[in-house]
């Protein structure tokens, strides 16, 4: 049975894995995900994807955009945990070289991570990450 303590351990594992992603290594993050066909991911680089193959491809692409980075801090805004389901709402702060940039820059994102037990371990079944961590004007939602 999965427990609250198991969720805390999983969150620590995910935080370490995200640190590896900031160095360009996607593998630890990929191990945190369900490999089911209903797994979903929305990251800052593109639209939502569904299914393990697409999720793995998006994680690989995200990792290719980062290098020489690290996780700085994870702020838990709220968490909900039951034996069958867990939801984690966070602000994640990292720093890395992004894309073709030569300087290490701050990367702040808000994330919602949904987890479910799979074969006795918590796995991510959905994750949404975006770069909105400060107030923005109403016009920022207009797509031109």
Can you offer a commentary on this structure?
The structure is a single chain. The protein has 144 residues and is an alpha+beta fold. The protein has a single domain (4-133), classed as Nuclear Transport Factor 2, Chain: A, CATH 3.10.450. The protein is built from 3 helices and 6 strands; from the N terminus they run H-H-E-E-H-E-E-E-E. It has helices spanning 4-21, 27-31, 52-64, and strands at residues 40-42, 49-50, 66-81, 86-98, 104-118, 121-130. The protein has a 6-stranded mixed β-sheet, with helices on one face. The model has no long low-confidence stretch (mean pLDDT 94).
Looking at this protein, list some descriptive labels.
144 residues; alpha+beta; Nuclear Transport Factor 2, Chain: A; 6-stranded mixed β-sheet
State the strand order across the main sheet.
2-1-6-5-4-3
The value of Rg in angstroms is: 15 Å
> How many alpha or pi helices?
3
Form type = globular
Strand element count:
6
> What is the fold named in CATH at topology level?
Nuclear Transport Factor 2, Chain: A
Structural class: alpha+beta
> What percentage of residues falls in helices of 4 or more residues?
25-40%
Q: CATH top level? A: Alpha Beta
Order of helices and strands: HHEEHEEEE
Strand content: 35-45%
Cα end-to-end separation: 49 Å
- Average of pLDDT: 94
How many structural domains can be distinguished in the coordinates?
A: 1
Major sheet: 6 strands, mixed
């Amino acid at each position: 049975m999965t427990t609250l303590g198991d969720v805390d351990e999983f969150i620590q594992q995910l935080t370490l894995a995200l640190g590896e992603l900031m160095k360009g290594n996607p593998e630890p993050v990929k191990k945190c995900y369900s490999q089911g066909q209903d797994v979903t991911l929305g990251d800052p680089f593109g639209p939502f994807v569904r299914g393990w193959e697409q999720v793995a491809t998006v994680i690989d692409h995200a990792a290719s955009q980062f290098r020489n980075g690290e996780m700085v801090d994870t702020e838990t805004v709220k968490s909900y945990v039951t034996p069958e389901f867990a939801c984690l709402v966070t602000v994640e702060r990292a720093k890395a070289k992004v894309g073709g940039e030569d300087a290490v820059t701050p990367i702040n994102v808000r994330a919602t991570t949904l987890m479910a037990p799979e074969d006795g371990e918590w796995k991510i079944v959905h994750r949404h990450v975006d770069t909105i961590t400060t107030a923005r004007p109403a016009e920022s939602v207009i797509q031109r």
